[in-house]
Amino acid sequence: MAVDLVVVGLGYVGLPLAAAACEAGLDVVGLDIADEVVAGLNAARSHVGDVPDSAVAGMVAAGFTATTDPAVLAEADTVVLCVPTGLSATGEPDLGPVRGAASTAASRIRPGTLVVLESTSHPGTTEEVVRPILELGSGLRVGEDFHLVYSPERIDPGNERFAMHNTPKIISGCTPLCAKYGVAFYGRFVESLVVSRGTREAEMAKLLENSYRYVNIALVNEIALFCDRMGIDVWDVLHCAGTKPFGFAPFEPGPGVGGHCIPVDPRYLESKARSAGFTFGTLSAARAVNERMPSHVVLRATELLAGRGRTMSGSRVLLLGVAYKRDVADTRESPAYPVARGLLAQGSAVRFHDPAVSEFAVDGRPLRKEHRLDEALDAADLVILLQDHSCYDLIELSSSGCLLLDTRGRSAGSAVTLL
Ligand SMILES: NC(=O)c1ccc[n+]([C@@H]2O[C@H](COP(=O)([O-])OP(=O)(O)OC[C@H]3O[C@@H](n4cnc5c(N)ncnc54)[C@H](O)[C@@H]3O)[C@@H](O)[C@H]2O)c1
User: Fold this and answer.
1) Is the CB of 18 under 6 A from ligand 1?
2) Could you tell me which residues come within 8 angstroms of residue 413 by beta carbon, excluding any fewer than 6 positions away?
3) Where are the domains of the chain?
4) How far is the C-alpha of 85 from the C-alpha of 261, rounded, in Å?
5) What is the pLDDT of residue 49?
């Protein structure tokens, strides 16, 4: 039985892709190594915030299945790899899942198959890592027997305006013919396609997009630290600067940078640059600032408690919002981890409230989850707003009388202290 598309890796990127392709009428199968992911999807249960259970139910009704059996790859016209590109224990790029998924596909692809890599990675990954694995394992030649494309995902979890269909997508091929096949495939469910000169340009463009965010967040974080030192209201500064209609893109300071992409992707760029004897000064400077933010939050928290004649030791601290981003459930690389670690190290009793996050543990030590916000606020000596999920009524929070450290600059009132 032929299948239009096999999506390899059904996470935050792969599942929305599978959903968009299903909606466009393609026959889609999802392949993942995680049994629980596959079982959940086949039972119409989503594990990805942007794809509700009802959407998965619709996919299943349209014929979508998920499997852990790679044999399905032999049936695919198109195979898209959406596997993680994280960091090793030493902070270096970990291409293990990309290599693993490419090897799994290599022995199964047929002449004519289109293989796409969507995972974020450094320039050269498609040509120097994925291509040789596929060619050696299949005995087929890229551009002659099968087609290889790199097309970085631009998904923005929680974004209600831009989804897959209306976000321009970069397509790059190992050969012009490969790119043509890529355009034909994505053109079925993405409105605007941008063909880059080659795969390295597309890989680099993705790293530029995320490094741009990383560096600009670092800049406003450092501006915030300086304003704090000088007694300048950074939120008013940002408001005023943000009114300039040209030449200024607004970014916001915060307790640190989280998620699977923004703090991780610059590492891929730095690592590749290092291997080419090139040093990225802006990225390492940005990292130094961004990684300083959680300890600044802990310092401000300590000062606030001291202002009430308390020490951190023995104080009850409530963290509001431990996810890395507003209105998402994802805690990967969340600054809530280093903040909680810093508070615990000083002997405070730390609890958390986050409607979307069921469990939150720091170094294997689970924090108690608070379900009733009003009771949790009453019981806390200090409340730290780390993520301004839309469920938090900032006016109510400001007037609740609690000692509040607002790292997002959303609240107002005399009991409120901004970052
Ligand atoms: N999450 C985002 O917002 C986002 C945005 C743009 C790009 N990206 C990039 O997309 C890629 C995927 O990220 P994600 O957030 O979807 O990751 P994820 O961790 O949510 O999902 C990855 C899935 O791949 C599966 N997997 C791992 N190895 C596999 C293998 N060898 N074969 C089959 N399945 C395998 C895992 O079980 C998991 O279900 C990464 O390179 C990431 O940098 C992510």
Assistant:
1) no
2) 398, 399
3) 3-205, 293-418
4) 9
5) 85
Which residue out of 13, 17, 37, 119 has the highest number of ligand 1 atoms within 8 Å of its CB and is therefore the one to mutate? Answer: 13
Residue from 22, 174, 178, 261 carrying the catalytic annotation: 261
3.40.920.10, 3.40.50.720, 3.40.50.300, 3.30.70.270: which CATH number matches 293-418?
A: 3.40.50.720
Q: Please indicate whether residue 50, judged by its CB atom, sits closer than 6 Å to ligand 1.
A: no
Residues 330 and 12: beta-carbon distance below 8 Å: yes
User: Mean per-residue pLDDT for 166-186?
Assistant: 98
Distance of CA 120 from the midpoint of ligand 1 (Å): 9
Q: Which atom of ligand 1 is nearest to the CA of 121?
A: 41
- Give me the torsion for CA of 321, 331, 371, 379, rounded to 10°: -50
CATH code at 3-205: 3.40.50.720
What confidence score (pLDDT) does residue 401 get?
86
Write out pLDDT tens, residues 285-338: 999 999 999 999 999 999 999 999 999 999 999 999 999 999 999 999 999 999
Q: For ligand 1, what atom is nearest to the CA of residue 37?
A: 39
